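Human: Here is a favour to ask of a fellow structure person. Comparing notes only helps if you start from a blank page. Give me a protein, with the fold worked out from its sequence. Please set it down just below, with no commentary around it:

Assistant:
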Amino acid sequence: MADLTPSERKVARALLAAYPVAGLETVAELARRAQVSGPTVIRFAAKLGYESYPVFQRALKDELLARDSSPTAQISSRLPGRPPLLARAHRGFAGALAQTLDRLPAEDVTGCVALLADVKRPVTAVGGRFTGGLAEYFTGHLQQVRPRAGLVQAGPFGKLSHALDMGKRDVLVAFDFRRYQPDTIEFAREARSRGAAVILVTDPWLSPLAEIAGFVLPAVVEAVSPFDSLVTAFGIVDVLIAGVIDEIGDLAEQRVRYLDKLAALAAGSAGQDPPTALR
């Protein structure tokens, strides 16, 4: 985003807001959707490295095929004679993390941190079958440095009933990776319809929630095994938590200190009332 002109950013936002449908439209249709000129759309495709708009669309179609790729397909594509396991892991994980950090839109990271550091806004995290652990990891860390952070109950009913209580002050952090989980998507859509701000952590192919999310943070998921790796997604969570700590400063430190005292109290040591700011 930072390398695009203001008009090209409009095209990028229009593409993300109706991904992938918008990218499969004609130049004129996408230009009309983004409220820019046709040449701006062509320049946008060129800025991304494609020699023409049709080439950009072919790349998008290839990406959609990869979006639906299953572990079975990835196992069958692996050839013998590969480097040793640890060597592959070192190269794969280091490369994936570097690519993820390089591709994160700096303005989106800044926007996410600002939302998460506003202690007056409740923050809720939600994940799915495999990403539930990510949501729990995120919530566990956020609860240590700021108040009003929670995790959605597992199961479709728990998610939807939780959405009924969300409003314009709420911030929802959704973790959704291929193959995207319908109940997570439905929950986030319901929360957004009630005014909640949505932060999405997803893969490079983008969860359908990218259409409604205010901020989208994609993580490279290629790994050593045929299953998508969440190593880089955990890295994104650590970046967000570090940003929140930097933003709220003393409050985070006081809260962590008091939590340490509570832990000591649970172990039999004397405690004291928490500072008002931490309640």
